[in-house]
Amino acid sequence: SRWCLITSHKLYSSVYDPNEKTFEKLLIANRGEIACRVIKTCKKMGIKTVAIHSDVDANAVHVKMADESVCVGPAPTSKSYLNMDAIMEVIRKTRAQAVSLNVSICCSFLSSLSLQASEGVTFIGPDTHAIQAMGDKIESKLLAKNAKVNTIPGFDGVVKDADEAVRIAREIGYPVMIKASAGGGGKGMRIAWDDEETREGFRFSSQEAASSFGDDRLLIEKFIDNPRHIEIQVLADKHGNALWLNERECSIQRRNQKVVEEAPSTFLDPETRRAMGEQAVALAKAVKYSSAGTVEFLVDSSKNFYFLEMNTRLQVEHPVTECITGLDLVQEMIRVAKGYPLRHKQADIPINGWAVECRVYAEDPYKSFGLPSIGKLSQYQEPLHVPSVRVDSGIQQGSDISIYYDPMISKLITYGSNRAEALKRMEEALDNYVIRGVAHNISLLREVIVHPRFVQGDISTKFLPEVYPDGFKGHKLTDLERRELLATAASLYVAEQLRSQRFLGTPRIPIAKSKRSSWELSVRLGDGIYPVAVSKDGSEFSVEVDGMKLNVTSEWNLASPLLSVTIDGTQRTIQRISRNASGETSIQFLGTVYKLQILTKVAAELSKYMPEKAAEDTSSILRSPMPGTVVAVSVKPGDMVSEGQEICVIEAMKMQNSMIAAKTGKV
Hints:
By secondary structure, the protein is α+β, with helices and mostly antiparallel strands. It comes from Dicrurus megarhynchus.
């Protein structure tokens, strides 16, 4: 039920041939949505699955979906999901014939992968030499040059220390990109515009690289300002065949991590697409690649493209490629690992329609476009009732979002016959997505996909800081939208008042029937207080705001987390997030949560006598904006610090963040 309900373009491997034997049992050495994704295809292919998990993931969705599950250690990934000794023991114990593993995480897996091969265990992915070559950004860049793939100017060796980093950066010319040789996912990457930022970037990037990948080697290359990030999906077998499965546009990013992806790209013409695809295939053949992989490029405004890196795994954003080609990439990877040749030729690969993916994170988008949030999902409902929607997730209602793993909640994918249709469905899906208990980035995602620049395809990797130079503030209401919100909130308040007068569908006091049909209210929204008059006629409310009348209709199912409301003929899906006895309520409207206070006219007049609670003075306190681990403290009690000086370093979801003093003072 989670797949795109599209049959017209599923032309190829979405249908499984039961006569094509592969493996009887497969171990999935991963967690979350990607583990669930692999299990779904295995079930379709009749392959039994074994899930590994940490102790805190004992009740995770991927564990429940698998046929067998084994705990491999405590919560930290280094002691569980990256504990190769424990994983190897599980492979032997369960007699798994194959293993699916996120090989990009750590190069130390290579020896274990070779051992698996010697014991007759097949790895679902490329051979170890390809993983090693492409997993090392320095070696991969040299290989790309030899394969005649366009590369970014830079230093091809390992940077020894901060002083050498500064010297190399000066030679290349600022700005430069400092990044982990074994890195990926935006971790261990820093942009430096001067010597000071280079020294700081070297320090943080090496620490993040060591923490995330067990390898602190760094490289430096020219930073291409304001590019697009476009990648090519490749698929190759063990018989020398390789295909490019079109491109994915991944330019909407924050902290070098992708947020919104789509396929195809609005920017590429057929000639550029073919040139990028042919270079990607040339690189795959140069390293004898055999599986699904992704070759990433930076593309400038003149459509010049440069090799960035090759990811030797199934990318997070692979669903958009599956939607427009009809291929099941996990199935193709399993077939290739078993030794079957590819069933398709390059001419067979279509671009059917358009697909968009939004990465839904447990993050606060109002802090640096998304700082991690933790907590328990008290309510969770995916928008699968919206047509042509696919949700890849590894969580459910009651799941915990912890500090130990990536804060991704799900990948939300919509498909349409064209881009406008896919974006309209994404807008509807985001409005119908219910997530309670943690902060999430739905508001940011919705604002991005409806922004005029994005709709026109005028995007780059700088989209977010350019569109929101002062940070993301949520949706800015127009006058009409403000009136719609006020009218909806007032109607909701009255509907609730009427419901509270009834008990099991009958009046509480049948003798004293209320004939009331109009209400005078005062609604506070932001810094404004608005008089609102509401009258009721059947299930319809007539609401007067700013001297204008709006008609509001709904089924008013107040027990539902979603409310479909029609305002003067315009349908809106809203969510009431919270309410209390003092009239305060939070409503999600057009993706953004707005805080309102709704009072009767009398209560509003009396509220001015209520004392206001003074705001807490936090200027002398350094409060972490996110949960995480303190990995370094730069001061001690008694030290004098100046404004902007580093106090400590917090690591959250494998990203390191420097915490600075807000003012001059003594610790």
